[in-house]
């Protein structure tokens, strides 16, 4: 029985059925096959429940992974004491977030974690990137050839357009920056979006027909 | 042999670059000065559309911004929210806030607290505005939410059943909404695919600056009605609504940092060509 359940044809068939059903339902107005049909609503509700359960699965997976690192005192991919710290923070956030005593999702302690720890730390991480970008721009943003020179000039104009200081140089800076964004940039973006959509369609078709099976494998089996 | 100034400049330690950027960031916060800010067409369209909303409109404000992105989106997010509450006061509009992912539940709460509109601070909560939590399940969750709001969010963020909130009376699905806004740092695909295309609901985006160019084709095609972009958009909306806030402080720092980075790139290019002329490269 377990051998049958492990056959790849089962998840491929399920993927094909649900993907085709949802694609047709999205575009169809038939009462029994549309966005509002009861079966569509039930499938979507089921997917939402699966999505929430995946959060729990992720919680267990991260605990298992990092508990393993701590037990084995690993040095790679990072020293084990960082895993210990992660587990500690995970435990504190879980305890504070569970609905007991003065704790819970909307309790003051969890709000404190969100607003006074998570929010400034994530903001700081995001901001630090700009320092490395400035350093990288200094090292590599050089007009080594004509193409690089055009890109550099465009960068200057768009940077000046996005900051009020550019307007001190005259209205032409803003006008040129807006033209760059709304004409060549938009044309390129439109092309990227259309190509992305076509690529998604092709990937979906390959998954439906069972030619694309990468999503069936776990990380450990990668390259099997 | 001693190195030339150009060679030294080309090998400058990055800590000096970081220092220059630090000074550029801190300057506007220590020495108060403001630069003139012209209102862009994008922000003007965004403001005009909201300003011309008919009376008694029902507006939903989706929150899809990460905590990392909030540092950039705070100005435009709060300026938009203030304008929505102005519409509530002046035009009797109903405002519904909802997160599009887990970490977007606490953000509207924090913002409401900042504006003095948290239920603990404002007893009128629930009459004309509500924060109804977050939608699990991404695109699929949004699709379900559009068909039946209560099926996904039976209670508001604080656990009060939606049926007990006067603001939610008569609001059951997406067709009851007159306008959808989304503050986003991760893309507008879900709202476009699940709200705008199937239901033709007018849609305004408050986007992180990175996403503005990528969203322009959607604006051009009419799928998006207007777009407010990044800190600059926030600062412009603050000026349009005459509610000057954090955006107008941050935009000066944007100017000084952009100038610093441009100056660094100019120096780097001068260095490159000077070394090339000397035959060092």
Overview of the structural elements:
The complex is a heterodimer of chains A (224) and B (281). Chain A is an all-alpha fold and 224 residues long. Chain A folds into three domains: 8-97, no CATH class; 103-140; 143-209, no CATH class. Helices cover 73% and strands 2% of the residues of chain A. Chain A has helices at 2-5, 9-27, 38-72, 80-97, 108-140, 146-161, 171-208, and strands at residues 29-30, 33-34. In chain A, a hairpin with a 2-residue loop joins β1 and β2. Residues 219-224 of chain A have low confidence and may be disordered. Chain B has 281 residues and is of the alpha/beta class. Chain B has one domain (41-247): Rossmann fold, CATH 3.40.50. Helix content of chain B is 52%, strand content 12%. Chain B has eleven helices and six strands. Chain B has helices at 5-10, 14-30, 41-51, 67-91, 106-114, 138-147, 149-152, 189-199, 212-221, 230-241, 246-277; strands at residues 58-64, 94-99, 129-134, 179-184, 203-207, 226-229. In chain B, strands 3-2-1-4-5-6 form a six-stranded parallel beta sheet, with helices on both faces. In chain B, α5 (106-114) links the parallel β2 (94-99) and β3 (129-134). In chain B, α4 (67-91) runs parallel beside α10. At the A-B interface, α3, α5, α6 and α7 of A face α2, α4, α5, α6 and α9 of B.
Structural class of chain B, by secondary structure, is alpha/beta
Radius of gyration of chain B: 23 Å
What is the beta-strand fraction of chain B?
5-15%
Largest chain-chain contact? A-B, 57 and 66 residues
CATH class placement of chain B: Alpha Beta
